[in-house]
Amino acid sequence: MVETSTLRSTRFLGLDVHKASISVAVAEDDDRAPEFWDKIPNEPSAVRKMVRKLGQGGHQLKAVYEAGPTGYGLHRQLRELGVECVVAAPALIPTPRGGVKTDTRDALNLARVLRRGDLTAVWVPDREHEALRSLVRARYDAKEDHQRARHRLAKFLLQLNRRPAVGVRAWTKRYHQWLKELRLEQPAAQVVFEDYRAVEQAAQERVRRLEQELRTWAEQSPRMAQVVALQILRGIGFLSAVTIVAEVGDFRRFAHARGFMCFIGVTASEHSSGSSQHRGGITHAGNRYLRHVLVQSAQHARHAPCLSSALRKRMQDMPPDMVELATRAQQRLHYRYRSLSWRIGRPKAIVAVARELAGFVWALGTRVEGLAA
Q1: Residue 214 falls inside a structural domain
Q2: Residues 282 and 361 in one domain
Q3: Contact status, residue 218 vs residue 132, Cβ threshold 8 Å
Q4: Which pLDDT tens digit goes with each residue over 325-371?
Q5: Which residue of 69, 112, 130, 169 is 20 to 30 Å from 227, comparing CA positions?
Q6: Residue pair 330/308 in contact by the 8 Å Cβ criterion
Q7: 136 phi/psi in degrees, rounded to 5
């Protein structure tokens, strides 16, 4: 056990957090190896007791735990108790080799790297912003469920060789009318068809409801100015803009555009050693929601630059420098797509355009936050 009577300026706490328990390791601010302290219940009262014991003698406490399914409740509680807390990105935590993984070893390693200052912290949103981000992700979950329901229904009809008339596109009004009038010969098959169709309709209604709620709550968000500003970029509408703002939070936490691109995971991977250099596909290390939104928005770079009536309306009352940036983005991204698509192919060109689009998004986001500061 750690000697709590010895006076130290700072104690570094490594917390391996699980649903029901927290394994605690302590590293003093000297060269001694970290020591395992205790395993406590993951309850507010137990956390308060831990802070009180380890803070005896005037110690300053600094804690770290990995970002995960337990969220940021522990971070907020520790901050309220006067403990400096870091939520670390799991993929960027240095881990010792050896093939042995236990809660105790994880806690000891967290305390060690925290004392060493070798951690990458994630951005912790406030409760209001976290709720908006949860609503954005719930809408994405609903879209995935809706797509899955459509695939299930379509594959069932394909199995029975039931197809709409020539010229009727899938999931249009005419297609839905065809589904409404469709009758199958086998009663059991009709039951299955009606069940699949009811699930698809319910999933579609769920998406509509969540999108409406998202518009309502986004308008009340203090970051609504960023949502409005991002929509002056071609290919970024309301849903894309609110997704970007909800997932990024504070654009100023990225010192430069390249850091933002790495956060999204659209930078090229590399494996180089000595005189050899090899670059592969994108890393995919980062926020998948942002990556999806920007890649979809980059599709608009295939078309020649133009200002539609909707885009002109969005640009009204915006600062001239931001409008000029959005106009320059159209020209730059279209040029990049034209110059790359014939050389590396359309899919790779779109990803490359998405990477450059991320730079313009970062520039606009930091510009708006600078005005609000």
Answers
A1: yes
A2: yes
A3: yes
A4: 999 999 999 999 999 999 999 999 999 999 999 999 999 999 998 87
A5: 69
A6: no
A7: -60, -45
